[in-house]
Structures are given as structure tokens and as C-alpha cells.
Design a protein that fits this description.
The protein is mainly beta. The protein has one domain: 6 Propeller (Neuraminidase), CATH 2.120.10. The strands form 6 sheets. Strands 1-24-23-22 form a 4-stranded antiparallel beta sheet, with no helix packed on it. Strands 2-3-4-5 form a 4-stranded antiparallel beta sheet, with no helix packed on it. A hairpin with a 5-residue loop joins strand 6 and strand 7. The longest helix is centred in the last third of the chain and has 6 residues. The protein is globular and about 45 Å long. The two termini are 32 Å apart. The relative contact order is 0.18.
């Protein structure tokens, strides 16, 4: 596998940059700064990064069929219209858990929005992974989650991969496109402690998993069949949070990072932490799927 050096394309200094999602229609990359409640809309051809304040913690955003965005907010799941600014809630499944917030999420090939919650204090296993259909139907897929993170699918859409970060594992599930149900849980990858914590994730057209390493200053590439580490790509940022393929050919990997929890010495050693990066991988990635299909 051939990779080029990570390129800092936006020195955003995000406290908790996360959730890159490529919108193929507009040619924009959406990403979030969770604690700031900021939604970013980045145009690679111009370098322009528009920022929208959602007024509360924002875990993730994904393109919706009608041109809006589906969001995982502190207090629920909603659709947001960028032009009008109208926010319409679709589900509030955790009003009984005020210490929780929504974290990573993305749309499935069938148009459902899969999004996970977590205890904001990162102590209790009070989180869950949900599946939200465009008609508002909400299902709980996984419960007892500590820090719900990376999601991606195999190229044939038959396998969902999922990360609950403290487990240091990438779990695999059979995924049923018609019903959106999951089955047959198994461990596909176990991440050694020396590499850091597995965070956000995407996959390429060959089925390899690209996993961001929190605290590990790296991206890692795994074979989910054998569980083997195929490549480690060093990053000039300590906390690497997530990644998504984009560009006209889906061969540019966009990578988010975070300054959260770093000491002055660590920030001095990794001053670009919190920035948005691009890697021209030479690989074709999986697309960002759209809410509503």
C-alpha cells in the first residue's frame, strides 16, 4: 500500500475535532468540534471553512437526502437545514440520561443513521448504538457501551464494523440491509495498548479498515479477516480522532484531530494537533452514505 505524507490543510486547533463526512454532491467535507458545538463545512478547492454554531455539543453530522444534514446532538437526533437554520428533532432517546451525549455516527448504505451515545465523563457504560430510519423508526442495536466510536461497512455492505473504544477492539456484525438488524457479533481486530486507543474509522474498496488512534499520533490500517495490522501511518498530531475518504475519486483521506487532554509539552511536540489533514492514499475509499438513501 502506498501512502503520501499527511498534509495539514486547516490549522483549526480544534479542541475535539471529529466526524469527517464527505458530501459528494457539494464537494464539501463536513466535520465537527464536539465540545464547541461547531459544525464545519470545508471546501478543499478554496480552503474555505464555514463554521456554524449549533448551541450545544455536536457529536456528528452526515448528509441527508434533501440537502440538509442529520445530526447527533447532546440532547437528541435531528435534521438541520443549513440555509434556513431550522432544526427538527427526530428522536430524543436518552432524556433520562442527562450525563450522556451523542458521539460518532454515520449513515448506512440503506440510508439509516447509525449513531452512538456515551457517558460524557467516560466512566459509566451507559451508552448505546442506535439506528434511526428516515421515517423516524428508532432501534437500539448495542447497549452497555462506554465510548461509542468508529463505524464502517464492508464493500459488500454485509458487515458492520464498530468500535467501543475502551474495549480496544473492532467488532464485526452481520448487517441486514432491508431490516437494518445486526447479528453474529465477533472480534475482528484487537488493538495493542502501545498503538493508542482506537477511535473513528472508515474502510476502503478492498475492505481494509482505517482506524484513527487517540493518543497514538497515527492512523492504522487493518485486515478485518485476519486481524493483522497492515500499516501504521505516523501523524503530526497526538490525538487522531477519525477519518473519511473524499475527493472526486474517493482517494483522499481526510483526518480530524483533537487537542483535548494534552499537556503543554505534548502540544509543543505536536503543534498541529487539532488540525484537519489530508492524505493522498492511492486507495479508493468507501463513500459517505446519505440519510434517507
Amino acid at each position: 500500500m502506498r501512502n503520501h505524507s499527511p498534509e495539514l490543510i486547516l490549522d483549526a486547533r480544534a479542541y475535539l475535532g471529529e466526524g469527517p463526512a464527505w458530501d459528494a454532491v457539494s464537494g464539501r467535507l463536513y466535520w465537527v468540534d464536539i465540545v464547541a458545538g461547531s459544525l464545519h463545512s470545508f471546501q478543499p478547492e478554496t480552503g474555505l471553512d464555514q463554521v456554524f454554531d449549533l448551541g450545544q455539543m455536536l457529536g456528528c453530522a452526515a448528509p441527508a437526502r434533501d440537502g440538509g444534514l442529520v445530526l447527533g446532538l447532546k440532547d437528541g437526533l435531528a435534521v438541520w437545514e443549513p440555509v434556513s437554520g431550522v432544526l427538527t428533532y427526530l428522536a430524543r432517546p436518552e432524556t433520562h440520561l442527562p450525563g450522556n451525549r451523542f458521539n460518532d455516527g454515520k449513515c448506512a448504505p440503506d440510508g439509516r443513521f447509525l449513531v452512538g451515545s456515551m457517558d460524557d465523563a467516560e466512566i459509566e457504560a451507559s451508552g448505546a448504538l442506535y439506528s434511526l430510519a428516515a421515517d423516524g423508526t428508532l432501534k437500539t442495536l448495542v447497549s452497555g457501551v462506554r465510548i461509542s466510536n468508529g463505524l464502517t461497512w464492508s464493500p459488500d455492505y454485509k458487515t458492520l464494523y464498530y468500535i467501543d473504544t475502551p474495549t480496544r477492539q473492532v467488532a464485526g456484525y452481520d448487517y441486514e440491509l432491508v431490516s437494518g438488524e445486526i447479528a453474529n457479533p465477533r472480534v475482528c481486530v484487537t488493538v495493542p495498548e502501545a498503538l493508542g486507543w482506537p477511535d473513528g474509522m472508515t474502510s476502503d474498496a478492498s475492505g481494509r479498515l482505517w482506524v484513527a488512534m487517540w493518543g497514538g499520533a497515527a492512523l492504522t490500517v487493518w485486515d478485518p479477516v485476519s486481524g493483522a495490522l497492515m500499516e501504521k501511518i505516523d501523524m503530526p498530531a497526538k490525538n487522531v480522532t477519525s477519518c473519511a475518504f473524499g475527493g472526486a475519486q474517493l482517494d483522499e483521506l481526510y483526518v480530524t484531530t483533537a487537542r483535548k487532554g494534552l499537556s503543554a509539552a505534548e502540544l509543543s511536540a505536536y503543534p498541529a494537533t487539532g488540525g484537519l489533514f489530508r492524505i493522498r492514499t492511492g486507495q479508493t475509499g468507501m463513500p459517505t452514505f446519505v440519510f434517507g438513501g
